[in-house]
Design brief:
Layout: H1 10-17, E1 23-26, H2 33-41, E2 45-50, H3 53-59, E3 70-74, H4 80-86, E4 92-98, H5 103-107, H6 132-138, H7 141-152, H8 157-167, H9 173-183, H10 196-207, H11 209-223, E5 224-234, H12 237-250, E6 271-273, H13 283-288, E7 296-302
Parallel strand pairs: 1-2, 1-4, 2-3, 4-5
Antiparallel strand pairs: 5-7, 6-7
Helix pairs in contact: 4-11, 7-8, 7-10, 8-9, 11-12
Length: 332
């Protein structure tokens, strides 16, 4: 079959996790590139998880050739420990998470993830529940502005939110992209499309991607056997910050007290860092796969310490204000 997606940073991931053996979880299965790479590297079994029906449909043609070594399950990686238990694995030797959107989702125009072609404004990874169209046409101006600023780091969030409300109903990707483009300075050669941040923010909100990441990291800590490995590939600064802070906190590398209050009794570290800093793609990988340019890989090894919990705020998860009197973003 044609390869619709090139797994990013697979070679350094396998090198950092060597020797690969036992049962692994690929929590973001997609086209199965990581799962196949893990089997080829020595894993006895990979439990794949994906909420996108397209991933399951595409895998149906090639999975039988792996003779049961790859077990694909429907669900989200935020519940990967429960899914692993249902698959007969109370603990596993490794967890791989490839965050964000896959190439096959971007390249399927009718899914509404891309502003390159006109399509219904959808963006649902699970193809169920409220869509980006629902969010864009039903959310209030303040809520939209908060989403664009906190999830997309869009500095013109208020201006864009106001323009969206004035243009409602907004039905398609190109409609939305044109609304955003009119709110921002003209694009210079080589710059990202003006709607990039807005589309990212809406996709993250529709799919609860930051909440899913926080739940997935904790679930991975619960399911990994002592010595098991957690490998996470992220593609933008907020995701990478959340992963980095989670691992630092759970490896005991960040104090949890303050100068005004003593630290609580320190928990035993649940992870040891394998990669001292984020691993980025080399020139060879970038030449073969330009979409890898923003990717960062972090790997950590599970200790025998009990699993714990992390507060969302501690790991830098953007938090939408629950009211206009609590928290919030700078007004622009």
């Amino acid at each position: 079959m044609a390869e619709p997606h090139i797994p990013v940073l697979l070679r350094p991931l396998l090198a950092a996790c060597a020797p690969v053996c036992g049962t692994w979880i690929d929590g973001t299965f997609g086209a199965g590139g990581y799962a196949r790479g893990l089997i080829a590297a020595g894993a006895a079994r990979v439990i794949g998880i994906d909420r996108d029906p397209l991933a399951h449909h595409m895998a149906a043609g090639w999975l039988p050739g792996f003779h049961g070594t790859i077990d694909l399950r429907e669900g989200t990686f935020g519940e990967l420990d429960r899914i692993a238990a249902e698959a007969g694995a109370e603990q596993v030797e490794g967890v791989v998470l490839d965050l964000g959107i896959s190439s096959m989702q971007i390249d399927t125009a009718e899914r509404g993830f891309s502003f390159q072609k006109d399509a219904p404004l959808d963006m649902r990874m699970s193809q169920s529940g409220p869509s980006a169209r629902d969010l864009v046409n039903e959310a209030g101006e303040e809520r939209l502005a908060d989403i664009l600023y906190l999830y997309g780091e869009e500095r013109a969030s208020r201006r864009i939110a106001r323009a969206i409300l004035a243009a409602r109903p907004v039905e398609t990707t190109l409609e939305l992209a044109e609304i955003v483009a009119r709110c921002l300075p003209r694009q210079k050669p080589g710059e990202k499309h003006p709607a990039t941040r807005t589309f990212q923010a809406l996709r993250i909100a529709v799919n609860d991607e930051y909440g899913e990441l926080a739940r997935g990291l904790e679930a991975a800590e619960r399911v990994l056997a002592p010595g098991g490995l957690l490998a996470v590939v992220s593609f933008h600064s907020v995701e990478d910050r959340m992963v980095k802070r989670f691992l630092q906190l759970r490896a005991g590398r960040m104090g949890q007290g303050s100068r005004y209050a003593p630290e609580a009794e320190a928990e035993a570290p649940a992870f040891e860092m394998v990669t001292r800093k984020a691993v980025e793609p080399d020139e060879t990988e970038l030449a073969a796969n330009p979409r890898a340019r923003s990717a960062k890989l972090r790997v950590a090894r599970r200790t025998s310490a009990p699993a714990g919990r992390i507060n969302d705020e501690e790991i830098g998860m953007p938090m939408l204000p629950t009211s206009r009197t609590t928290g919030g973003r700078p007004r622009r």
